[in-house]
């Protein structure tokens, strides 16, 4: 029996994110793995936060993650799916800490010029 691995897939409203998930399902995920669909809501400084707007953003993120869940369940791989929707800081530190805390085997994302992560990579 193989050990259960945790694979985090970043959920974004882009075709590259969907393609990255499909790639992971075909090439990385194996029977019994746990796939965490992670959506990062945009960061807003504390002074400009609107609770209703943040709630709506989280809801939209969760609905988007559910559409990614549909891709997972339509694959032939038997795996557990988790959904995490959170807000990150401008530097991406919360996301990195969360992935580490989960003990993820892999982080999968589709990189494109409007991506939260693309902006982070540009700062490095």
Assign an overall shape.
Answer: globular
Main β-sheet, spatial strand arrangement: 3-2-1-4
Instruction: Give the topology string: H per helix, E per strand.
Output: EHEHEHEH
Helix-residue proportion: 40-55%
Q: Say what the CATH topology is.
A: Rossmann fold
SS field, number of helical segments: 4
Would you state the CATH class? Alpha Beta
Oligomeric state of the chains present here: single chain
Report the sheet with the most strands, covering strand number, pairing sense and barrel closure. 4 strands, parallel
Domain unit count = 1
* Secondary-structure class: alpha/beta
Number of strands: 4
Low-confidence stretches: none
| Rg from alpha-carbon coordinates | 15 Å
What is the average per-residue confidence, as pLDDT, rounded to a whole number? 83
Protein name: UspA domain-containing protein
InterPro entries: Rossmann-like_a/b/a_fold (IPR014729), UspA (IPR006016)
Domain UspA: 5-122
Organism: Chenopodium quinoa (Quinoa)
What can you see in these coordinates?
This protein is α/β, with parallel strands linked by helices. The protein has one domain (6-123): HUPs (Rossmann fold, 3-Layer(aba) Sandwich). The protein has helices at residues 15-27, 51-74, 93-102, 116-123; strands spanning 6-10, 34-41, 80-87, 106-108. A 4-stranded parallel sheet has the order 3-2-1-4. The model has no long low-confidence stretch (mean pLDDT 83).
Summarize the structure.
This protein is an alpha/beta fold and 124 residues long.
């Amino acid at each position: 029996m193989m050990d259960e691995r945790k694979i985090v897939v970043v959920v974004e409203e882009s075709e590259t994110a969907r393609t990255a998930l499909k790639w992971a399902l075909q090439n990385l995920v194996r029977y019994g793995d746990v796939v965490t669909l992670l959506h990062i809501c945009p960061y807003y400084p504390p002074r400009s936060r609107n609770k209703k707007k943040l709630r709506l953003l989280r809801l939209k993120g969760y609905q988007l993650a559910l559409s990614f869940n549909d891709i997972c369940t339509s694959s032939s791989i038997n795996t557990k799916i988790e959904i995490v929707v959170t807000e990150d800081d401008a530097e991406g530190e919360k996301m990195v800490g969360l992935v580490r805390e989960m003990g993820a085997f892999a982080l999968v994302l589709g990189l494109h010029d409007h991506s939260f992560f693309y902006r982070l990579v540009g700062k490095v």
